[in-house]
Write the structure tokens for this entry.
Amino acid sequence: MSAHGHSDDGHDFAHPMPIPVLLAVFVALTILTIITVAQSNFSFGGIDVIIVMVIATIKATLVAAFFMHLAYDKPFNQLLFVGSFVFVGLFVIFTIGDSQMTSGDFIPVDDAVPAVVESAPMAGAE
Amino acid sequence: MATTEASSETAHEDHGHDHDHPAFLAHHFDTPEQQFDSGKLGIWLFLVTEVLFFSGMFCAYAMFRALRPDVFEGCSQFLNTKLGAINTGVLLFSSLTMAWAVRCAQTEDHKTLTGMLAATLSCAMVFLGVKAIEYSHKWGMGLLPAGLFFYDPNNQHPTAEQLELIGFGSFGVSFLQNALFYICAPFAIGLIGVVIWLVVSLVNGRKFQVAVAKPLTVVFVFFFVGVGLGRILESGESHDSHDSHAVAHVDGHDAHQAGDHASDQHAGDAHAADSHSTDPPAGDHDSHGSPVEDGGELAVLERLAAEKTNTGLQDDLAARQRQSAVASGAIVHSDEITSTIETVPEEVLTPSRAGVFFSIYYCMTGVHAIHIIGGIIVLIWLLVRSVRQDFNRQYFGPVDYVGLYWHLVDLIWIYLFPLLYLIR
């Protein structure tokens, strides 16, 4: 630990982001938001979800890289954060694959309940 | 960080050895950089747990959407894209001000730092205000999670008696009908408290407390700015549904029926259509149904059928338009019959199916809103410290860590917005 004992004053570890970069990222994010809202008015068939997710991922990358300073961060921190998404991908892919193999539609349907409640007195009267 | 800071202060006061270090540097760190890097590793680890935590809900979303894409598409129509887009913009802007605040802490620009933190807080409040409008609007209509869902396209704003009939207690009814009031109450109390605090500290001449209470007052006011903004945007959207509601009542349909109104109405109107179709050949057109009246009726139907969920009325409208075409002498091919059992789209807006969508919706946006509230609390703490001028180019960690958390909350919303609001 004492190997790193350099003077506090001469060493600056802060990397302030230049204001133009911050503004440029914000403008880019706003434009991407407008694009993603606008594209929802057109139908692209089955690739709708993919387009939306690609735009969202570009936005997320911009936020992470510049607003979160991840582009200038330590490689270990980058590995941690990006690595978490690898595990999210594994989790989601395996779970969806499993749910599609085991059952079709497993939402319990209780829509008949109010009708039964309503018709019960009538059945009793008859 | 509070404990770190506190311990460093006490250590600074009574530590006996010749270890001269700044007050912000905890005793167990060699350099400010080491302290900063440790904290940064810690917050990144926390963010990783957050990502994994939210991934559970995204997984549930993906699973149910893969099972029933039609349910998600149908229910997404109830989410106001305008409000979602505004909230996305507000959150992106708050991310900008937060990143700017980190920069200000690093460059020791204390005044701008306080301003940027206040701006971030204000944006968070606007977000919650718009959210309050969205939630209260849906709760009043019965667009609730599975188990509580009672939305009925023909009776979108049930009365208190109808709600009690559905099975809500007296508090539940009052909560559903005055949801906006209940959501706003804590923020109103907070605003009143902050204003009282500001006035008292102004009277007593406590400069530091005034400097803290001033931006906080603005921040709490911005919640109600958000509510107003949401109201303006939502009112444009719900105008039609109010109208159709009124028309439905004029039409004389009993709103008390809890069953499927669409089919009832369909059957009832089918009778009306029968009488129309049988009478004109026997009698004269003018005495029975004048063309003007027919046109008006069709217009009413068209407006009712504009509600996408009113599939029964849509069928009825198609039948009537066909009928008026026949009446005016047009030749209609009989093989145009499309209402076979195979082609009838399955009802999406049933309590269990739509309820599942709204369960996921409330879970994801609700947990996200809880994170916003958590962020607000931590940002207020930062605001107090920035007024105290605690941060400098060697010690800006807390601002940076809270900033990272805030950006993650923004990042999650970046995915939530298109996945929930923009399904088509």
In short: The CA atoms of residues 103 and 113 of chain B lie 8 Å apart. Chain B touches chain A through 67 residues (CB under 8 Å).
